[in-house]
Amino acid sequence: MTRTIAALIVCCWASAAAAGQARGADAVARVGDRTVTVDELRDVIIDQRRTGEMPKVVEALTPEGQRRILQQMIDTHLLAFGARDARLDRDPAVQRAIARAVDLVLADQLARREAAALDDRALRDYYDSHEAQFRIGERVHVRHIVVASEAEARQARDLLDAGGDFAALAAERNVDASRRASGDLGWVKRGVMVRAFEDAAFALTAGETSAIVKTSFGFHLLRAEAIDPGTLPPLDAVREQVRERALAERMAALKRLLAATHTVTVDETALKGAGR
What we know:
4-stranded antiparallel sheet; two-stranded antiparallel ribbon; 57% helix
């Protein structure tokens, strides 16, 4: 609903800016000195089909439904005339709403353009370079040494580098219940441990020991006793997941780039006062 309203606001805004410029052959309807062009009607019909809401999709596919959509656009122009007659277009709140609607539509169109750039080759490249994200059943058999301070963790690391036995050090020094099992945590799947621990554990190869990892539980040294890579579904089975993650990364990178060229500042005092 919000996107539809925004689109109609922008449609009226754009029509006002281009009044009288549309050729007669392009106009499917006229409202005063405004026109509804074939392209404008087609845009709204396509947007309605994209909603995925079956009543709206069916309406956008039938001649009767398309006539109703056109009538809604005509009604919007009529109501916009009424708003201008009432000088609502000069109301600061209305001007802010129009500006927000324009930004919403522009942002949506940019996001669609970025999504369209993710063709089959781009999705394949992302999938191939991020296989670990899509594996099913991946797990690692982890043993850890966990101590209360970074200094203790560095000392344990030095002892390991000097040939110390990992399990023996864990049984001697661990500050959690795994001490009784010589630090053996068994098989760990993704999504179980805290993020820093998980990232370190799944970055290891079998027999490798991690650098010091800090979590809310202490300072850890992790050792991968064994790796079970699980199974990797074919791209077609996870295509939508690949698309979502690739687009999210693409949009995050684009926003970082834009923020670097369009400075963003936040007035914390004003923010606190805005909700009062």
